[in-house]
Write a sequence for this structure.
């Protein structure tokens, strides 16, 4: 963590201070819980959209990779990874960490599939922990007038947007709202879009996937204040020691 204040200007009539702070943290799983059936450490523990395994953070996304929409059928596509062996045979990998626990990866090959169950769960290189987050602002005072601002920022983190996933759902037609991205859904062969077709009782690509893992980068105004401190000579006759608007 860091916190800095710079006094840029300081005179009888004008002062200007600049404030900035930030922080970063990380964590790593060093030991896994035991599997009662084998007596050995589990290779992987799934926690929602995160995967816990040795050497990884508690907030690394372990999820299927969304690969867009088939322009001919409108079905959602996902990446399936295969281990291609020296003899030319291929193993479908549905769970990357678990597979690597017992098998050597000789050559990885990726194919797109509309079968969600055949898509590979894997670390997708995104974390729920921002690289840097904090705030900054300044305090400006000019002859009784004051302007104070505070901003917050976050860089490098991701989150699973379950609200957006719900708003893109077709599970119960007519019972709720849709996001306006629904207008971009696939409707006929040849449509090029990243929003799958609608199927009654099925969300538009409803399953957990990297489709709904979105950046949390942001810059927000948290506070903005403009004030004026009335001069003492204005207040003396009123019997007021200090007043600020």
């Amino acid at each position: 963590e860091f916190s800095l204040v710079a006094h840029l200007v300081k005179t009888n009539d004008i002062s200007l201070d600049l404030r900035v702070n930030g922080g970063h943290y990380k964590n790593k799983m060093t030991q896994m819980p035991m599997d009662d059936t084998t007596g050995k450490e589990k290779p992987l523990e799934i926690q929602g959209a995160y995967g816990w395994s040795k050497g990884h953070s508690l907030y690394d996304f372990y999820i299927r990779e969304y690969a867009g929409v088939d322009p001919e059928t409108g079905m959602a596509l996902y990446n399936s990874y295969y281990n291609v062996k020296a003899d030319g045979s291929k193993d479908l990998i549905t769970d990357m960490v678990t597979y690597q626990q017992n098998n050597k990866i000789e050559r990885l090959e990726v194919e797109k599939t509309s079968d969600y169950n055949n898509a590979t769960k894997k670390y997708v290189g995104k974390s729920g922990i921002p690289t840097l987050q904090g705030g900054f602002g300044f305090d400006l005072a000019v002859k009784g007038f004051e302007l104070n601002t505070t901003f917050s920022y976050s860089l490098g983190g991701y989150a699973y947007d379950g609200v957006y996933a719900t708003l893109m759902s077709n599970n119960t037609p007519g019972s709720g709202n849709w996001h306006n991205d629904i207008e971009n859904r696939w409707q006929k062969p040849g449509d090029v879009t990243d929003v799958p077709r609608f199927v009654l009782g099925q969300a538009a690509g409803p399953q957990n996937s990297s489709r709904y893992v979105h950046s949390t980068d942001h810059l927000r105004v948290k506070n903005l204040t403009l004030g004026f401190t009335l001069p003492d000579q204005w207040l003396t006759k009123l019997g007021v020691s200090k007043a600020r608007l």
